[in-house]
Amino acid sequence: MAKKDTNYRYGGPLSGVTLDDGREVMLHPGAEVLLPADNDYVKTLVAQGFLTEVAEQSAQPSPPALSPREREPKNKEVTDAG
Questions:
Q1: CB burial class (10 A; 0-12, 13-18, 19+) of residue 46?
Q2: Which of 29, 30, 42, 52 has the fewest other C-beta atoms within 10 Å?
Q3: What residue segments make up the domains of the chain, in order of their start?
Q4: Residue 80 DSSP label
Q5: CA dihedral defined by 34, 15, 11, 22, rounded to 10 degrees?
Q6: How far apart are the C-alpha atoms of 10 and 14, rounded to whole Å?
């Protein structure tokens, strides 16, 4: 059973390859690329140091949206009108 693709950063010269699954891939220096980790060519590039696996970044939850009232400045002066 084939593994899912892995995200790598390529650190070699500009290159192109046709993988054994028929996929054509352009490898650009410094770019990230999804490749099958169980592919022999990919394993060779990893061993040579041209590909380094990019760790998956954990998704940071965005802060909750503020209501219009919450967006008002906090240090407003309160005046007594009476």
A1: middle
A2: 30
A3: 12-53
A4: -
A5: 20
A6: 9
Over residues 12-65, the pLDDT tens digits come to 999 999 999 999 999 999 999 999 999 999 999 999 999 999 986 544 455 556
**23 is written with which tokens?**
């996929």
3-state SS assignment for residue 64: coil
For tokens 């060519």, name the residue. 41
Which residues touch 26 (CB under 8 Å, ≥6 apart)? Answer: 14, 15, 16
Q: How many residues can be counted in the chain?
A: 82
* Token pair recorded at residue 13: 């010269």
